[in-house]
Amino acid sequence: MTIQTVTLNNGVKMPQLGIGVWKTSNQEARNTTAMAIKNGYTLIDTAKQYGNEAGVGQGIQDGLKVTGKSREDLFITTKVFNGDQGHQPTLDAIEGQLDALQTDYVDLLLMHWPVNGLYNATWWAMEEIYAAGKAKAIGVCNFNVERLSDLLDNGSVVPAVNQIEFNPRIHQQDVLSLCQENKIQVEAWSPLGGGAALSNQAIQQIADQHHKTVAQVILRWEIQQGIVVIPKSVHEERIIANKDVFDFSLTDEEMVIISSLNTEEHTIWYDKFKWSGNPDGVDDYIDHRN
Ligand SMILES: NC(=O)c1ccc[n+]([C@@H]2O[C@H](COP(=O)([O-])OP(=O)(O)OC[C@H]3O[C@@H](n4cnc5c(N)ncnc54)[C@H](OP(=O)(O)O)[C@@H]3O)[C@@H](O)[C@H]2O)c1
């Protein structure tokens, strides 16, 4: 089954489902990327902070060789590292990232986190990278309403994507609404709740009705809301199954049941990046864990 695409606000087409490679070594990222491409994935989501761009670059070469596809058939996403934020460091860092990924351009370059006091300057550098054709689209991750509004006020290019934590347990409806108003595509990270959402009994019952797995139902629930998903797995049978979500639909009632599981709790250190009310504030925080 072909993976659906969405059209970003600059006209670029983006697959609605791809593979994530957080918490994988270079070797695992290489294998996972190659397996994903072999099984029909074209969107690969990595980041300098994951330490595996080189592995992804090798996996892309392996995957292209096996499938006969070309670079243009893929949609490669990477992210600006928190430690590289600011205007010149961002411009300098992209060159090494492209080298590691063995490509002249990425399809989507995201700012990994909004580092206070730096994210606007980082964005201006990303606008230059976009103008130079080294990224076909640029966007952000983990931007809440206040920061996204600030970026929209200070930037020239409207972000094409905001990649945020989104799964049945966290919806960030306020961020979603602002993104929709500004034609910013929402992309879900941890779409399976990092695996934690997979043991839910209510979703299991829905899955049984459709002869699908819980993972497939969760991904379908996200896709049906127009969200892009990047489930991570290093196992080929899961990589294959996670993509098999375009041949069934959830009813309105089923969508509501899954939506009602929301607890709106971030799973990781989101509070470290809490909006201080001062975008140039003193509470700069550089986190090197993700
Ligand atoms: N922008 C950001 O700040 C940010 C933050 C976090 C993540 N991300 C991106 O989002 C991607 C996805 O998020 P995530 O990796 O945190 O979590 P996730 O995709 O929600 O869940 C991944 C976990 O679920 C397991 N899994 C996957 N498919 C499964 C299936 N069909 N059945 C059972 N278990 C399954 C995986 O295990 P196995 O690998 O063992 O199969 C892994 O433990 C990341 O890889 C990364 O690319 C971005």
Residue stretches low in confidence (pLDDT < 50, at least 5 long) are 275-290
User: How many helices?
Assistant: 10
CATH superfamily: NADP-dependent oxidoreductase domain
Mean pLDDT: 93
**What order do the SSEs take from the amino end to the carboxyl end, as H and E?**
EEEHEHEHEHEHEHEHHEHH
Q: Rg, please?
A: 18 Å
Q: Indicate the percent of residues in helices.
A: 25-40%
Oligomer: single chain
Please describe what this structure looks like.
- By secondary structure, the protein is an alpha/beta fold.
- The protein has a single domain (16-286), classed as TIM Barrel, CATH 3.20.20.
- The protein contains 10 helices and 10 strands.
- Strands 3-4-5-6-7-8-9-10 form an 8-stranded parallel sheet. A two-stranded antiparallel ribbon has the order 1-2.
- It is globular, with a radius of gyration of 18 Å.
- The structure holds NADP nicotinamide-adenine-dinucleotide phosphate (NAP).
- Residues 20-22, 45, 112, 141-142, 163, 189-195, 198, 213, 215, 230-235, 238, 241-242, 290 line the site of NADP nicotinamide-adenine-dinucleotide phosphate.
Question: What is this entry, summarized?
Answer:
This protein is 38% helix and 13% strand. The protein contains 10 helices and 10 strands.
